[in-house]
Design goal:
Shape: globular
Number of strands: 29
Mean pLDDT: 86
Number of helices: 11
């Protein structure tokens, strides 16, 4: 084994040396220069450059792995330019050709950088380009930006040339949703001015002006204004809203066409299939060959456009979101057609009428899926089979029904019996809130769903039989104004563990905590609230930092304890109430997770994560149920440890300990991960993880696991490692290799495992789907 590892290490080292030794200028033709470095500097140190300034460059050097080595260029350079065999073609395909400096693009970049500075208020900015060609076949470009003085807005005047348009006051009339930031004293930024134009145009379209465009708005700036001593460059701004031929539009009739075929998109609305029709309130629904596969009430509930109201672009967008959220609808298209009013229009009556036609493409309503897996647990071979059925339109209202049957068999070498498991999982999701006393207006403002889940699992082994029942009722919603926030209330959360049979000899051989947490009957009745926040910034844009946050609070047992009090129930010998002959759990659990991705440059980012959680048993319970306790180690935790092998605290791992003992009531996770691109679909990562779990009380069999403020920081484990990812856009397969750096489970100098990075006791592999955070 050692010689095999040595051989692999030598081969890897030789490959690394071979690739690294490939000259990056091997494929640079004579007379050309490799673009080695691009630097952008400001000639005035006190004036910082915009964060996205590098986005304006038309040429960037070859990509650097982890921001250091040009790995892909070296791969490409390793190929023989005169050979086209498989090996050389593969190297060129995986690699990246050299980026050769183009003086034309360099000049255009200088112009773009000057415009970018002008867009930030530095209207007189200039850019000087310096090209260093002193290195053989390499060129380094430096763009020296001289910002000049910044222009500021002194006064703003607004002129509306169509009396039909609603009045505009940048400080008052426009809500914060449309206010971009123009006011007296702010920089004169053409970029901000253009955003303000778009915002005002959207404001108009949300107030009935269907065809209003930002082209109807323009600014005039007088930059000859004399400024004061502190701001020498000032400008008076004049906002002109033209829109001379604009009219307000009112929504007339609303029609649904439920059997739209996009391949017949040339058909006029009047020619679409109308085999059957039904009238529901103010809406008319036309059905085609598929018949009445969806109820008219479900369609009406999924649109925010209301007849006899002014046109609103915002309501159209909300309708798109809700319609496309229906599982039975594959795609939706909303069209408006202007028509003449039945009554004669007077000169003073400028209101126009548009009819709304909503075209929907139906999706396949039913589907089946099957999955077969092979298993190997400590040499005991087995197989697992699951069969699933999906109905995307169970009650003809876009209800998503899913049921999955699962079965598993494992041949146990020791003993005459085998392990068998079978169960069923089912869920039913409604595309709205099934809750009384919610007004129709409130329903229109929400993107919501109601979901029922139920599960049954039966396990039989020579030592025991176990039945697990679970049920959930979840309400989820988010508003259109604050779409970054998603709320979930788990109104009902039930878990029941029943053991019809357990071998007494086996039960007596279990450690006390193991028997208590996993081999006694349990009953949990609780609820939870979950809040998710996701920023809307683009993760592809340099300088954009996507941020996510998750907060959850879960409690159980309070309702059951209140019933026990009211019914004067008796307590058992341990002083705990029982329900249906079972001790029920009572606890509160809090979790907070924050993650931020900092885009350093193209294909290089830094991901940060911190997670904190705590669970407190009280009242009728002294322990948190096993399924709800925290564990450390694994693919999404401290990756130098295998799953459930770290903690709690500094508890020593001895032969009598099991993974049931390595659980806790408090968790701390901190992760830093540098993500970069290799080639094709392959990505790489380097990470550092820290964290552990602790107990809230001094439990038996969990010595040194108690959380204490005077020592917990000494019990935070550290790990580091490398990862390989295969990114298919719609899902990602991840392979991580972690090494222990600091091990609180050891003593003395052995705590610092980084001094002995072996691949036996201090190493862990992890395979997972998706990013860890």
């Amino acid at each position: 084994m050692p010689s095999s590892r040595l051989t692999h290490s030598i081969l890897a080292a030789l490959l690394l040396v071979a690739v690294s030794s490939c000259s990056v200028i091997r494929h640079v033709p004579d007379g050309e220069k490799l673009l080695d470095r691009v630097t952008i500097v400001s000639d005035v140190d006190s004036i910082p450059l915009p964060e996205d300034i590098r986005d304006y460059t038309l040429q960037q050097p070859n990509y650097r792995l982890f921001g250091m080595t040009r790995w892909q260029l070296r791969l490409y350079s390793g190929s023989n330019p005169e050979s086209n065999n498989w090996w050389n073609r593969s190297l060129r395909k995986m690699g990246e050709p050299p980026v050769l400096i183009d003086t034309l693009l360099t000049d255009r970049t200088a112009t773009r950088l000057a415009r970018a500075m002008a867009g930030d208020g530095y209207l007189d900015a200039s850019v000087r380009t310096e090209v260093d060609t002193s290195i053989y076949k390499k060129a380094r470009v430096t763009y020296h930006i001289h910002p000049g003085q910044r222009y500021y807005i002194q006064d703003i005047a607004v002129e509306t040339r169509n009396p039909l348009l609603p009045p505009i006051s940048l400080n008052d009339s426009l809500s914060n949703v449309y206010q971009i930031g123009i006011r007296s004293g702010t920089p004169l930024s053409p970029i901000i001015l253009d955003e303000e134009r778009k915002a005002i145009a959207r404001y108009m379209r949300n107030n009935g002006y269907w065809r209003f465009s930002s082209e109807e708005i323009y600014f005039e700036a007088d930059t000859t204004v004399e400024g004061d001593k502190t701001r020498e460059k000032m400008a008076n701004l004049r906002l002109i809203v033209n829109g001379r031929n604009s009219h307000p539009y009112q929504v007339g009739n609303i029609y649904f066409h439920t059997d739209y075929n996009p391949f017949e998109s040339d058909l006029a609305v009047e020619e679409l299939p109308r085999i059957d029709s039904i009238r529901h309130r103010e809406y008319t629904v036309y059905y085609g060959k598929k018949g009445r596969y969806i109820r008219a009430s479900a369609l009406a509930r999924s649109v925010s456009i209301i007849p006899e109201t002014l046109f609103s672009e915002e309501e159209v967008e909300r309708s798109y979101i809700k319609l496309n959220a229906l599982p039975i609808i594959r795609n939706a298209n909303i069209r408006f057609i202007e028509r003449e009013r039945a009554d004669s229009l007077s000169l003073s009556d400028s209101l126009r009428i548009i009819d709304c036609h909503i075209l929907t493409v139906p999706a396949r309503s039913k589907s089946f899926e099957a999955e077969i897996l092979g298993t190997n647990s400590a040499g005991d071979f087995g197989a697992a089979l699951s069969i699933g059925f999906v109905n995307r339109n169970l009650f003809r209202g876009g209800e998503f029904f899913n049921i999955k049957l699962k079965g598993a068999y494992e041949a146990i070498r020791k003993g005459a019996h085998s392990f068998m498991e079978y169960g069923v999982e089912s869920s039913l999701r409604f595309p709205h809130l099934l809750f009384p006393f919610i007004s129709e207006n409130t329903r229109r403002r929400l993107r919501a769903s109601t979901e029922w889940k139920i599960g049954y699992n039966y396990q039989t082994r020579p030592e025991f039989d176990r039945v697990i029942l679970s049920a959930q009722l979840n309400y989820s919603w988010q508003t259109y104004r604050h779409s970054q926030l998603r709320h979930t209330i788990r109104l009902l959360d039930v878990d029941y563990l029943h053991l019809p049979y357990i071998d007494q000899e086996f039960a007596q051989s279990l450690p006390p905590t193991t028997a208590l947490y996993n081999y006694t009957e349990q009953f949990i009745l609780g609820s939870a609230y979950i809040l998710n926040y996701t920023s809307t910034q683009s993760p592809e844009k340099i300088g954009s930092n996507p941020f996510t946050a998750r907060f959850s609070i879960q409690s159980a047992g309070n309702l059951l304890q209140a019933i026990s009090y009211l019914t004067n129930s008796k307590k058992d010998e341990l002083g705990a109430y029982q329900m249906f002959g079972l001790n029920y759990a009572q606890f509160v659990k809090l979790d907070v997770d924050l993650a931020n991705t900092i885009q350093l440059e193209k294909d290089n980012s830094l991901a940060l994560h911190i997670g904190i959680g705590a669970a407190f048993p009280y009242g009728n319970a002294r322990h948190i149920p096993f399924e709800l306790r925290y564990f450390a180690g694994g693919a999404n935790s401290v990756r130098g440890w295998s799953v459930r092998t770290l903690g709690p605290g500094s508890m020593k791992v001895t032969p009598d300990k099991t993974f049931f003992d390595q659980m806790g009531d408090i968790r701390l996770d901190m992760n830093v991960e540098y993500r970069t691109k290799l080639f094709w679909k392959f990505r790489a990562a380097a990470f550092v993880d820290a964290g552990n779990v602790w107990t809230i009380r001094d439990y038996e069999n969990q010595e040194d696991g108690l959380f204490r403020f005077d020592r917990f920081y000494k019990e935070i484990a550290l790990a580091y490692g490398l990862g390989l990812r295969l990114d298919f856009d719609y899902f990602l397969v991840r392979l991580d290799a972690g090494l222990k750096a600091y091990d609180p489970q050891q003593t003395g100098r052995y705590k610092w495992a980084i001094t002995r990075p072996n691949l036996s006791s201090n190493f862990a592999w992890h395979i997972a789907v998706g990013y860890p955070f």
